[in-house]
Design goal:
By secondary structure, the chain is mostly helical. The protein is built from 16 helices and no strands.
């Protein structure tokens, strides 16, 4: 068919652009909803404990069980989406998440709620790799800054606004029913996203599907390794004694076996993880930065909401409001960072990490200078600075890390990145949580001292991530400097 008039071509192009942004909007809503459930439960734990008579171990599973199953499903679901198409898997995962949310809201016992949370986490692990994979599928490399910026804003806002939204729901519906609405709110949003996702997200044609084996042995080895690593971390406070860390050693051993299997399997099939991706400096260092940053980033809300509610006596709503400056800064900077990341590259991430460290240091100083109930408000400005920095880390780092990844590996590559973030989250909560609660016990419930120690460890994790970012900056500049020399030698 001959091409039509120029205006017709422009019209078709505009229509295609509209369609892909419709698909992107549904994916972002689903990503927001699943990531929101990582943090929104924090402020509801006292209400859940009172209503269902949960033990401390039960509360830990409500909070950490979600992250555990979330991390387990990310890579297999990403690989399956790459091979068989992302739309149907996205919809199945979203439907399962919606049903599990309804079940969690209807829970009448601790076991019921824990099982619903485990299913919720598994469904979130199915949905999220499809979101980053869709960005790779729908947008060319030069166009991905904006959608990855919006994804980064989604990650930042969902994590930071969770305590505020949870507190608001508890304030409106009361403690007994408010925690249930934390889960019920997902149901109408999930149903709408399922319908619109089926209409707007493009399906993969049968002739485009990868019919090779999905490497079931690799999936099992990776799942077992991640489980053995995450389990002692999420149960760190409940399982006493050092024996639990043997599971961590076993997990590392299983992952070593997984790597050996993947190298062998790659000779005749498509492995779960393309290990060659880690030879790309942008991907390897980007994944490391993500792991380290999330180890510090998510612990901020874990210990700070505990400090505000238990240490300063804030209500769930006030605790959420006190963290809002971080959310606002993160959202604004993430949207901007996505637009300018292709211009500035990894130095933008290094700048963001520096701002996070400075902002958290300012938070420690503000809380030291202003004691009592006004401390939470005194920390608002430094938290805003930290939020601005966070927005310049998450989305730009994701864009740079996945920039050179082939589209056919986008889902699994993004899933590996997110798995690292989930492991980083578990490590951070375990390490920072241990420091926080040990200092609290040693200091006769001195919440200020405990928070200070916890934030200092968090700052340390952010600074290690900054070292990794600077290493990438230096290496990139060295490559640029050597290029003309190599070209001259080649000509000679």
């Amino acid at each position: 068919m001959a091409p039509g008039p120029r205006g017709t071509c422009a019209s078709v192009s505009a229509e295609q652009d509209t369609n892909r942004w419709k698909a992107m909007s549904v994916a972002l809503v689903a990503g927001f909803m699943t990531l929101l459930d990582v943090s929104i439960v924090n402020v509801a734990l006292p209400a859940i404990r009172a209503d269902l008579d949960l033990s401390p171990g039960g509360l830990q599973w409500v909070l950490s069980g979600y992250a555990l199953t979330f991390g387990l499903l990310l890579v297999p679901a990403g690989r399956f989406g790459d091979a068989r198409g992302r739309r149907n898997l996205f919809i199945v995962g979203l439907a399962l998440f919606t049903l599990a949310s309804a079940a969690a809201g209807l829970a009448t016992s601790a076991l019921w709620l824990i099982i619903a949370r485990l299913v919720q986490g598994a469904a979130a692990g199915v949905v999220n790799p499809q979101v980053s994979g869709l960005i790779q599928q729908l947008f060319k490399p030069a166009e991905r800054g904006r959608p990855f910026g919006l994804l980064g804003a989604t990650i930042g806002i969902s994590t930071a606004v969770g305590p505020l939204l949870g507190g608001l729901l508890i304030q409106v519906f009361g403690a007994e029913q408010g925690w249930r609405w934390i889960f019920f709110i997902n149901v109408p949003i999930g149903i709408a996203a399922i319908v619109l996702g089926y209409r707007w997200i493009p399906a993969r044609r049968a002739d485009q599907q990868d019919r090779q084996s999905l490497d079931s042995v690799g999936v099992l080895l990776l799942g077992l390794g991640v489980l053995l690593i995450l389990l002692p971390l999420v149960q760190e406070r409940e399982w006493q004694g050092p024996a639990k860390w043997l599971l961590l050693v076993a997990g590392l051993g299983v992952l070593g076996g997984f790597l050996a299997w993947e190298r062998r399997y790659a000779a005749h099939g498509t492995p779960v993880i393309e290990l060659g991706l880690f030879k790309q400096r942008s991907y390897g260092l980007g994944a490391l930065i993500g792991l380290l940053y999330f180890a510090g980033f998510t612990t901020i809300f874990f210990i700070y909401t505990l400090y505000l509610q238990n240490g300063l006596g804030y209500s769930a709503l006030l605790a959420g409001l006190a963290i809002t400056p971080f959310a606002l800064g993160s959202a604004g900077a993430a949207a901007l960072g996505g637009r300018i990341v292709n211009r500035y590259g990894r130095p933008l991430v290094a700048t963001g990490l520096t701002l996070v460290a400075v902002g958290l240091g300012g938070t420690v100083l503000a809380l030291d200078l202003v004691r009592g109930t006004n401390g939470g408000w005194a920390a608002a400005f430094p938290l805003l600075i930290a939020g601005l920095g966070s927005g310049l880390v998450i989305s730009p780092n994701q864009t740079l890390t996945l920039a050179d990844v082939p589209v056919e590996r986008a889902g699994s590559a993004g899933a590996v990145l997110q798995t690292g973030q989930r492991i980083g989250t578990a490590v951070g909560i375990a390490v920072v949580g241990a420091v926080f609660f040990n200092r609290l016990a040693a200091g006769n419930n001195d919440w200020s001292a405990a928070l200070r120690m916890g934030l200092l460890v968090t700052i340390g994790l952010v600074l290690v991530a900054l070292v990794a970012a600077l290493a990438d900056v230096v290496a990139a500049r060295r490559d640029k400097t050597s290029e003309p020399v190599e070209g001259t030698l080649a000509r000679r």
